[in-house]
Amino acid sequence: YIRMLGDVRVRSRAGFETERRGSHPYIDFLFIFLFFVANSEIEVSVSARNVRRLLSFQRYLRSSRFFRGITVPNSSNILDDDYNGQAKCMLEKVGNWNFDIFLFDRLTNGNSLVSLTFHLFNLHGLIEHFQLDTMKLRRFLVMVQEDYHSQNPYHNAVHAADVTQAMHCYLKEPKLSKSLTPWDVLLSLIAAATHDLDHPGVNQPFLIKTNHYLATLYKNTSVLENHHWRSAVGLLRESGLFAHMSLENRQLMESQIGDLILATDISQQNEYLSMFRSHLDRGDLCLENANHRHFILQMALKCADICNPCRTWELSKQWSEKVTEEFFHQGDIEKKYHLGVSPLCDRQTETIANIQIGFMTYLVEPLFGEWARFSNTRLSQTMLGHLGLNKASWKGVQREQSGSGDDVDPAFEEMDSDILPQEPRLS
Ligand SMILES: *[C@@H]1O[C@H](CO)[C@@H](O)[C@H](O)[C@H]1NC(C)=O
Ligand SMILES: *[C@@H]1O[C@H](CO)[C@@H](O)[C@H](O)[C@H]1NC(C)=O
Ligand SMILES: [Zn+2]
């Protein structure tokens, strides 16, 4: 209820417009207050999108009208139209590492997540294999896309589409493609598409220090990831996409999607990485074993989630700008409310270049180094190649800005020591 109210855009007669809940999670209670005084002085205006989010039965109605093909005017939002022209052309190369998700998002009118995921379900034969109702699938994907906050500079549906596209590239790698079952592919794509669902645009420490209800609900542990997972489960159940499967299978699906999404908690990276490393050292990974396959899929999703620095410079740079904008926005709120500015969030002391170099050094290089040991393919070499070039480019920017290169952002050193690799080692 809090979440729904929080999404209402509030506007006073004087034209003052507060920012939306997505960017100010702690402000939920203010929104409730404003909501109750709405009748007297404050005019509450609800955008079309938020009306739909307000009550899930309204969403239900809309979907079922859509379902029956009535009252929905011809609109460029509809998937059939996405298949026209350039977007369709791009989908033919959906397995290319150079795939430009920003362009694809523009060509599909902001529907990249729906179009791309639907296409991948089709491409992998999942619709046929699991006897999926394509209208239910589309409805599910539309709900997923809408539950991302489009006002987040980074954690929005385009990031989810990008991660899903990267996941598809990894699923195609020879080692995986020859051992994965349709079930594995299904879970991987759903987990990738939903892994940041309803992300509020701030990080876990922020939610904890502002006593956000999600921090309480999930006891300060993988707060965001648990929320993404539970939101995904909610939409899966609401869509009825798998209603024809046994309860046992649906429960298994929900818990396995949870294992995949929870693996994207970056503060747990070191645990996953040391497990990965010891498997590779012992050479005992056996992909006929379902548990081993699921562990590899967790690693693949982790890679997909932080693969931005492994893309071409043009794409990578745009992601860097977006994520920094989101960090700095959090820092601005923290300053305004004297909450203590989180590491990497202070626009006075941080730069994109410093943040990126730290991120690459401590998180991306160790992970992709091990991934390349596991899957030593052209794709892995391409990714490591971009990573090296992009890091060099940011170092160039850093030198121009400060006149002294080779600084690694000290903020990374202050972060949870779990994040720091004990023994950075690239294959
Ligand atoms: C919708 O598109 C169809 C076929 O493309 C066309 O026949 C129909 O007239 C269109 N309807 C509206 C309301 O534009
Ligand atoms: C979560 O962290 C806050 C702030 O450190 C603390 O006050 C609270 O007791 C913690 N909650 C749980 C369940 O650990
Ligand atoms: Zn993510």
TrEMBL record:
* Residues engaged in binding Zn(2+) 2: D196
Q: What is its cofactor?
A: a divalent metal cation
Which residues take part in binding Zn(2+) 1? H159, H195, D196, D305
Q: How is the cofactor bound?
A: Binds 2 divalent metal cations per subunit. Site 1 may preferentially bind zinc ions, while site 2 has a preference for magnesium and/or manganese ions.
Q: Where is the signal peptide?
A: none
Q: Which reaction does it catalyse?
A: 3',5'-cyclic AMP + H2O = AMP + H(+)
Enumerate composition-biased segments (Acidic residues).
406-417
Question: What Gene Ontology terms for biological process does this UniProt record contain?
Answer: signal transduction
Task: Tell me the pathway.
Answer: Purine metabolism; 3',5'-cyclic AMP degradation; AMP from 3',5'-cyclic AMP: step 1/1
UniProt superkingdom = Eukaryota
What is the main EC category here?
Answer: hydrolase
What is an example of a GO molecular function annotated in this UniProt entry? metal ion binding
Tell me the keywords, alphabetical order. Answer: cAMP, Hydrolase, Metal-binding
Summarize where AMP binds, as residue positions: H155, N156, A157, V158, H159, D196, D305, Q356
Q: Which InterPro entries match?
A: HD/PDEase_dom (IPR003607), PDEase (IPR023088), PDEase_catalytic_dom (IPR002073), PDEase_catalytic_dom_sf (IPR036971), PDEase_CS (IPR023174)
Which residue ranges does the record annotate as region Disordered? 395-427
One of this protein's Pfam families, by short name? PDEase_I
| SUPFAM superfamilies reported in the protein's UniProt record | HD-domain/PDEase-like
Name the catalytic site residues.
Answer: H155
Domain PDEase stretches: 79-401
Q: Which family does it belong to?
A: Belongs to the cyclic nucleotide phosphodiesterase family. PDE7 subfamily.
Q: What is this protein called?
A: Phosphodiesterase
Native source species: Otus sunia
